[in-house]
């Protein structure tokens, strides 16, 4: 009876002992550190005790031990303990380790290898600020926080201006790397307004290896185009060749400050006179010397002093403001009003002095002017209608007027003189040519140069005289018609009385 009770007690003790030994011990080890785990075997010298890693037996003898995982594992027995040492532990060393004898498990360890992640970064941050192209009134953007190469993954929360942001405004996901580490990424969705410039955002990373969470901060830098751009100094007055005009282009707002430049009508860069930050105000900058802020943004100006030439007559001057992060600049343009007279009038025959079926086209062309020059013809002192006329823009500025006349030999052209009049305001330039010379015989080539007479006069004769003659003739014709009508009415009245 006593023997049976003893055996029962031993069985219960053994069961309790092995049950307690099989309880799993969780351990976390930093990557690269050494690990030592033990199991109690007492004075048992039984060589059947061994260590097992994830079901794989670890060799005990030194010969095979050196071949196991590069010799970083070592097993020893000391003072009733069966000891496993792992040197410079690596991520693949994570797993379940068991100390066993026969079918009994003496100890179980769950080993996890940790690694401190790299310092968190906000990917879009440059120098502690996130530049955003703000196109208002509400601009949506995202910023991402990265916590890379850690183990385990960890977690991220966000704060704005010191206040925690609701988790619904951001997400986070984990990427598992090929070497067994984790990359944690969290993306925050933001609705920006005009007041968002300078707002501070904080990404806070919590990790198993941190004593306290680690945070990284950034601030919003809103980049936006200038509110307005205007040109001062020219109000549309008429300018002459050689005159000087000073203009100033002013922008209001913009972040960062825009780069200003002047462009001519062909898009070429013009030489500026100055470019600097000035106050943000409405008004003529030439009259202001003080400086103050408008909506937190200074204005900027660039000057241009221009000596007017013929090329400016048809051209447009453009002031352009280019702001970083924006593909297209803002700009404003103006057209200078430049007037100048034609310098000369020329007559040419087509085809180059040769007849074509006894018909010759004669062209009268004015040199450039602005506004355009009017051209008319006379033949033997009477206005003669041109065959065609056109006005073109000169590449040198201003307008060129050309009037063409067709002269036929059967019209007795050799007996007539043709005069081309170029009229510009009170200036009149005339050139004459003889039809006889134009249609002279000698295989169609004029026997003498074109006869020309050039005279510059006030515009008091020529076209005005012809117009006066037409008015007088019209008045005489009108009087004659009225007289005839009165005579007719008088006769009809006398005839009616006679019948009565």
From TrEMBL:
Q: How does it sit in the membrane?
A: Single-pass type I membrane protein
Q: What GO cellular component entries does it have?
A: cell-cell junction; plasma membrane
Question: Which Pfam families does the protein's record reference?
Answer: C2-set_2 (PF08205), I-set (PF07679)
InterPro entries linked: CD80_C2-set, Cell_adhesion_signaling, Ig-like_dom, Ig-like_dom_sf, Ig-like_fold, Ig/MHC_CS, Ig_I-set, Ig_sub
Q: Please state every residue range assigned to the domain named Ig-like.
A: 16-99, 119-215, 226-335, 342-434
Q: Is Transmembrane helix tagged as a keyword?
A: yes
Cross-referenced Gene3D superfamilies: Immunoglobulins
What is the protein name for this chain? Nephrin/kirre
